[in-house]
Each structure stands twice: as structure tokens, then as C-alpha cells.
Design a protein that fits this description.
Helices cover 26% and strands 28% of the residues. The chain has 261 residues and is an alpha+beta fold. Strand 7 (152-158), helix 7 (166-182) and strand 8 form a beta-alpha-beta unit. The longest helix has 17 residues, at 166-182. The protein starts with a strand and ends with a strand.
């Protein structure tokens, strides 16, 4: 049976351009209304993780990357409601989530920090990063989390957004090794999310889509769905019209979608 898989960086629930109000619930309902099988989301406020199942009707598994600055994520939500375009994730933290159709029963879950201190130190030395770049890399904690169901493992990540693209490239390889370690040998393995690297400029993407790793071909842009162990259709970005609701363009990223056969 074919699987429809999507990924979307939801831009903290903002429209493009950002507005005073937030539109996260509308985004989640939009991306899940036709009942896809798997959805990977990035740049969620931490408070939203408890609401995703109610909005989507799907199983939700989340991972917090940056914790809220205030005592609770809910308090951060209340303050951010004053102006979403201004506060964004400053008070609500940041999280990622994987949504599964209800009959896909998870048998294993795990997560990994993509830029812990030990990794930054080692890669910083290898790449010859200057002090300013190392400091910028440390500012935002990034994670990859994965869910395994029988015969299928899905990993979701949001790479660091830095001028030196070798940094998210190193994080992407770390995420792929982690995802492979959770998967069983015969699993279909899906690596999805906002990689923050570009096809043609990424050594890691070339490796992952080469014969040694065997993932499906990458597309243009930083949002990707790579699949190993099954045939796929051509991934595609949603059109502007598909993510426009009530005349408002939702998020500064377009969802990416692929069908796995």
C-alpha cells in the first residue's frame, strides 16, 4: 500500500509575511485534512505538542529542541499571543513532531541532539571554525527524533541555520547515522525535515543519495524527504495556492510531499 509522507517547517505558526496573530492550528489541520500517512513538522512552539493529536487526528510524537525562556510553555503561549510576528519562538521554545496515521503503532522512539558541545568541539576543529561561528552554532539547540513502526522508521530533523553550510551538513550526517541505528535492517527508512543544506552544495546529501547509503534523490531547496528501502514517486513542493488560506500565505516554507510505493 502506498504511503503519503509530508514535511513542513511551520515557521512557529506564522504567516508570510508574519502577522500579529498565529495560525498554527490552521496549518496542522491543512497539512493533515486529507489523511496523509506520515507528517514531519519543524519549528513548532513547545506548547503545541499536547494539542497536535486533537488538531490532526493522528498519533503525535514530539521532541523539544529549545526550551521556553519562561517557567512554562503555556505561559509563553499566552504572552506570544500578544504579537506572534514579534515574539516568534523567543518565549515558547521550539520543537519538532512526527505525526502518524492512527493504525501505525510505534514500537520504538528515540532522539539525539545534533549539536552537543562534544560534537561542536570536534567538528569545529576539523572545519577550522572561528570563535564567532562556534558561538553562533551553540546558540540554538537542534535535535533529530525518530519513530519506528513495524517495517518503517521515520526520522525528523531541523538543521542549524548558519552561513557556513558545512555545519548543518555535518549535523545531517549525524542524524542519518542515528536514524539508521534505530531502524531494523529490513525497514523502509525515511529521513525528513528542514536540512538547511542545498543539493549540489552538500557533501552529505551526495553521500546519502549515492550507492553506499542508497536514499532516494534529493530535490531543490532545504526541505527534504529521503527514502531508502522502497520505491518513491517524484517529491514535490506544495504550490502557493495549496498553502494559502483566506488570502494568507502560511509559513515561509512550502510543504514537501512524496508517495512511497
Amino acid at each position: 500500500m502506498a504511503l503519503v509522507i509530508r514535511t513542513w517547517n511551520v515557521f512557529h505558526g506564522n504567516a508570510n509575511p508574519p502577522e500579529r496573530g498565529g495560525f498554527l492550528e490552521q496549518m496542522v489541520r491543512l497539512i493533515t485534512e486529507d489523511r496523509p500517512d506520515i507528517v514531519a513538522l519543524q519549528e513548532l512552539p513547545a506548547w503545541s505538542l499536547r494539542r497536535l493529536e486533537g488538531w490532526s487526528g493522528m498519533r503525535a510524537s514530539g521532541a523539544v529542541a529549545a526550551r521556553p525562556l519562561l517557567i512554562s510553555a503555556e505561559l509563553g503561549r499566552v504572552v506570544t499571543e500578544l504579537h506572534h510576528g514579534f515574539f516568534r519562538s523567543a518565549l515558547t521554545g521550539q520543537a519538532n513532531a512526527i505525526l502518524l496515521r492512527p493504525d501505525l503503532q510505534p514500537v520504538a522512539k528515540d532522539s539525539i541532539v545534533l549539536n552537543p558541545w562534544s560534537f561542536r568541539r570536534r567538528v569545529g576543529r576539523e572545519l577550522g571554525l572561528d570563535a564567532g561561528t562556534r558561538l553562533a552554532w551553540a546558540k540554538a539547540r537542534r535535535v533529530c527524533h525518530a519513530v519506528r513502526t513495524p517495517g518503517l522508521t521515520v526520522a525528523n530533523l531541523h538543521g542549524s541555520s548558519l552561513l557556513d553550510r558545512r555545519i548543518p551538513d555535518a549535523e545531517l550526517l549525524r542524524a542519518a547515522v542515528f536514524a539508521e541505528s534505530l531502524a531494523e535492517r529490513a525497514d523502509v527508512l525515511v529521513l525528513a525535515g528542514d536540512f538547511n543544506v542545498w543539493r549540489g552544495k552538500s557533501r552529505t546529501l551526495a553521500q546519502l543519495t549515492g550507492p553506499d547509503w542508497g536514499f532516494s534523490r534529493a530535490i531543490e531547496g532545504i526541505d527534504q524527504i529521503l527514502v531508502r528501502g522502497a520505491r518513491t514517486g517524484q517529491p514535490r513542493h506544495w504550490t502557493v495556492e495549496q498553502r494559502t488560506v483566506d488570502g494568507r500565505l502560511l509559513s515561509d516554507h512550502a510543504p514537501v510531499e512524496v508517495t512511497v510505493e
